[in-house]
Amino acid sequence: MSSFKQDLEMYTPREEQQETLNFIKKSLEDNPESKYFLLNLPVGVGKSHLSLMIIDFYKENIDKFAKCDIITATKILQDQYTDTYSSISNLKGKDNYQCAEYGCSCAQGMEFSRLNKTKCDGCPYVIDRDSFISGRVSLTNFYLYTLYALYMPKLLESRGSKVLIVDEAHMFDDVMSSFISIKITEGIVKRLQFANQKEIIKRLKKISTISQYIKFLEYLEIEIEMTIGDIESNLGSRSRNPVKDKRDNRLSTLFGTKNVDSKMMQIITDLVQYKSKIEIFLKEFNADPNNWVLESRHNEKSKQNELSLEPIWAYDYLEKYIFSKYDKVFLMSGTILDKRIFCELNGLDQDKTVYYSIDSPFNVENRKIIYMPLGKMSYKSKVETFKNYIPYINKILDKYPKDKGIIHTNSFELSGWINESVKNKRLVFPVSDNKDDILREHHKTSDPLVLVSPSMDTGVSLDDDSARFQIIAKIPYPSLASRKNKLRQKNNPDWYAWKTVSGIMQMSGRAVRSKSDWADTIIIDGSFKDVLNYSGRYFPNWFKSSIKRVNVSVGNLN
Fold first, then answer.
1. Which residues are within 8 A (CB) of 496 and not within 5 positions of it... i.e. 6 or more apart?
2. Residue 102: what are its φ and ψ, rounded to 5°?
3. Rounded CA gap, 461 and 73, in Å?
4. What is the mean pLDDT of residues 28-36?
5. Cα 77 to chain center, whole Å?
6. What is the mean pLDDT of residues 152-157?
7. For residue range 53-90, what is the model confidence (pLDDT) as tens digits?
8. CB atoms within 10 A of CB 2
9. CA-to-CA distance for 74 and 80, rounded, in angstroms?
10. Of 32, 36, 34, 29, nearest in space to 318 by CA
11. How far lies 211's CA from each of 206, 207, 216, 295, in Å?
């Protein structure tokens, strides 16, 4: 393992990184009370190494004993940090570690140990957790960090970190919002093996108001406690031989089934998590009931409507559970775009916030955006527009016959239409369960595959030959079928425009990742013109300068 200084000295700072650090230094000289630093940095600046430079500056000039936290959006981005910098103490969730004692995940193994009143020696999760707590520079992902911040705050308090760096910060308020939201579905009730399953589902189906949902959750809390007790009593009534459990696990793997005890341990883990979510939710709901909305969505997979309770805004929770714990907070993204809106969304005091933004360091010829309107992918006209899409998607695929690419659909519905209508063996359709695996294979293969996805618009790096073209098939307007989005738009109209522009820029940034990289971005949704006309103020000039309109009647893609 290298030292922090060795990691820092592996690379010569880029001009953009040094200028950003100079801005931070000057800001602190002018106003030492500045707490929040919004760094609007396009792809190619090298935000990972900049994080280390910021930490080194802080230790050298402000507090040499300070502990610093880096959090990023996904485990894939987390891996990119640790693959490069071995001095960082890295932590993932318990399910990512294998328990050698019981032949299962550490999440389940810890439950086995608790019931058997034993302790796993050399638990890999505990080793990494302890390293994370004591480390001078520690790293984790948004999901796990938020889990600790809400449900295990004493762990973060014991760490005592002074500095927080948030990478891909444009996603953070959405992560907090979804994390503090609560959703109980018929499928979840069945999976969690409630003894009183029929009655719970019966009550769930009768919910139509927020007050009914609250009463249901209070009832469900009791059912969760009873179910946990029943399962633990059943498991605890028979002793467990770790060697036999390992043998059973090997046999289970061989025959394609899971160990029954491991399944029950996973259920206990999930039940405990849901109980904690309900407790936090009820506390925050009672504190501000006007910030919550009952959201209804149709699940295509289960063919059922699902109800969830979601906060309209997450800024109070970000400040309460996270930002208030730190002396300095650095938020980095290529799509912060506007200081005022970003501060409002994340609950930042504008008087204590400084904002820094730079142009893309990439040559405009390497990041061309081709606007080829084929009709608007709006609710009223999407069916007719898609008929225009089919021949042109085929033309685009033919134009790049030996190149990998990606089609951003922004909806599973549009991905499904492409799957049904564009018959091309190069197309690959990742879903949530296999997205990471497919992405890894996409990077490895030499075949000119084309990903088709509504959910690879951010936090995904398709550098170099991983994508030489990308199609934006649907402008990422926030869905107004969502009650929450409707209320957000009503309460803060600028949010809707900012969110749309941010989504377009995130999509366009997936394929060109360095100064030597290049790719074409082709926008075929005619709604892009409306975004330029009504929300164009949020696009930086370096982005606008790369746009070229193509006359589709000619069909010329050159």
1. 477, 478, 485, 488, 489
2. -115, 0
3. 13
4. 96
5. 10
6. 92
7. 999 999 999 999 999 999 999 888 898 899 999 999 99
8. 12
9. 10
10. 36
11. 12, 9, 9, 13
